[in-house]
Amino acid sequence: MSVTAPSPSGLSFVEGEIVRACRDARRERSSVTLVAVSKTFDAPAIAPVIAAGQRVFGENRVQEAKAKWPDLMVAHPGLKLHLIGPLQSNKAKEAVALFDAIHSVDRPSICEALAKEIVKQDRRPELFVQINTGEEPQKAGIAPSDTDDFIARCRETYGLTISGLMCIPPLDDAPAPHFALTAKIAKRNGLTQLSMGMSADFATAIEFGATHVRVGSAIFGKR
Ligand SMILES: *Cc1c(COP(=O)(O)O)cnc(C)c1O
Question: CA 10, CA 203: separation in Å to the nearest integer?
Fold first, then answer.
């Protein structure tokens, strides 16, 4: 883990860019949630960002989040934690217990495990289905052409409430068409939430309707 404490200047830069992107898109600032991605950064590095007012954080590994967030959450009531990375069925119990949102729902076995834990723990994290908009073989997510069926299955077979869609555009592509496709699939499935946009492209994502931007390095510095 990195031990360099960032100054909160990254956060204020990102906040300013979000405000500007919202103004350009004629959207309310409150329609976009900034998820500050703190993966690989330790608690002393995260503390200044909490002190600067940030309340929603993202982690991509259940084990890493479990190691650092419970203490921070006790010290700072009201923090929200989002899982943005891949989830394995055998971690569903811990994920439902710890996270307020899960952005990486992408296969029936995960749906089944989440449905069971949601009932058992009576906790309802907000759920996003991850789409592999670039159809990259190495990347997680549902293929765009399978997404309608998968969402229906989440709802009908597993009784899950799906809030929205998440995508990670291919590194070498212009992100805009991927954001547009994600927004289109969400709309035809009656989903209002869009988790898209990272440090390099969150302003573009806001233009295309992102409700959650997942920003790491622009806030915390290089990993
Ligand atoms: C790491 C990560 C981010 C943040 O990436 P940055 O480029 O550092 O902003 C966003 N989403 C996911 C799924 C990630 O794993």
Answer: 15
